[in-house]
Amino acid sequence: MRVKIGIPRAMFYYKFIRFWEVFFTELGAEIIVSELTNKRILNDGVKACVDEACLPVKLFFGHVINIMDRVDYVLVPRFTSISKGEYVCPEFGGLPDMIKHTIKGLPKLIDTEVNLRKSEKGGVRAAVRMAALIGASRRDALVAYRHALLHLSLGDGSLGGDASLGGDGSLGGDTSLGGDASLGGDASISWLDKASRTRLGERFPQSQSSPRLSERSLPFFEGRRTVPQDKRTVPQDRRTVPHVPLLQVAVIGHPYTIYDEYISMDLLGKLKKYDIGVKTIEMVSNDAINKSVAELAKPMFWYYGRTAYGAVMHLARAGKVDGIICLTSFGCGVDSFINDLIERKIKKESDIPFITMTIDEHSGEAGFNTRLEAFTDMLHWRRCNEDNLPTPGEHIYRCQINT
């Protein structure tokens, strides 16, 4: 009988699911992912978790409860660092202990520490230890690790950035475990791209319980329709040209916040409905991020801080965005510092509109929608009319918004 490994659909699920799915499947395990976030899952997490924790941590508890009765193991890695010289939020390190001492009737936990602060080889060591917990050999673990890294980056065809696959299977630079593999420019996020999943083919078939992302969860990750290179072989009426929204907005936030449709209140879907394009941290190459953060007086302590600051400053200076939305969870210590740093820098260097949207388990969608609509309406009016200086007697607005 195959070992069943449960993966909670929260926290670093949105960053490493491509890796975990291939890694454990190659080791002969069956992957079962918790349900899409809903009110019941959130309520279960809020009841089980301590009040002081942030919303994503409470949600993680709910997803563990949702999946614990259907699996032999629950994956709760003890993340300390996922990039050299940087840390992640300390609550990741405490998650396994919080889960163990709070939720009763748990199956076994895969709570291996993942620490790449000193060396990228920490990812290899973590993979070998995880494999040992389910009875797999070191040799099998290294092979599965290599394949998982390669499949993680399917879509843009490379591991990106300065990544290099070493002889021991480690991924160089800041792309350890493939988590920060550069996508280059405005490329789609390959590790969440549904099209990339299908390229795994028959070698990694997906069971009924395998993770599947709804179209509404990631509304802007659609297959790009492009004009074929050989236009002469395609009739004119069959050619398709991608639609380019008039406005582009940078949405800055942790992937487990902005890509969870429920707690983000479908922010990405609403922006698409308003015909506004979205740029996220994951759409900026690692080289561009590092170039932007090099101006700081000292290196960032947090991995998220480096990527968020570097990505938004790159997008702003390149003139690729008309507005910036920071989506943050109430009580997030890392965000409280990083968002303020970004906002001060943006206001100092540019006139790009900036808004912070704060969410927690008590947030109401009506108020959220009101703020978002006001912000997007302002962006449209600004684009159309900011530079309009009409002559006397003419209408002040040269374009109108359809309401």
Structure description:
The protein is α/β, with parallel strands linked by helices. It has two domains: 4-203, no CATH class; 244-385, Rossmann fold, CATH 3.40.50. It is built from 13 helices and ten strands. The protein has helices at residues 13-26, 39-48, 55-67, 90-100, 121-133, 138-152, 194-198, 255-258, 267-273, 286-293, 303-317, 333-349, 365-385, and strands spanning 4-7, 30-33, 73-75, 78-81, 108-110, 113-115, 247-252, 276-280, 323-329, 354-359. The protein is globular. The protein starts with a strand and ends in an 18-residue tail after the last helix. Mean pLDDT is 75; it is low at 155-234.
Concise account of the structure shown:
With 403 residues, this protein is α/β, with parallel strands linked by helices. The protein has helices spanning 13-26, 39-48, 55-67, 90-100, 121-133, 138-152, 194-198, 255-258, 267-273, 286-293, 303-317, 333-349, 365-385; strands at residues 4-7, 30-33, 73-75, 78-81, 108-110, 113-115, 247-252, 276-280, 323-329, 354-359. 38% of the residues lie in helices and 11% in strands.
Strand content: 5-15%
Give the averaged pLDDT, no decimals: 75
SSE arrangement, N to C: EHEHHEEHEEHHHEHHEHHEHEH
Structural class of the helices, strands and pairings?
alpha/beta
The residue ranges in which pLDDT falls below 50 over 5 or more consecutive positions are: 155-234
Task: Please bin the fraction of helical residues.
Answer: 25-40%
> If you compute it from the alpha carbons, what radius of gyration comes out, rounded to the nearest whole angstrom?
22 Å
Strand arrangement across the biggest beta sheet: 2-1-3-5
From the N-terminal CA to the C-terminal CA, the straight-line distance is 58 Å
Whole-number total of structural domains: 2
> With helices defined by DSSP (H or I, 4 residues minimum), what is the helix count?
13
- The number of distinct β-strands equals 10
Largest β-sheet summary: 4 strands, parallel
Q: What coarse outline follows from CA principal-axis ratios?
A: globular
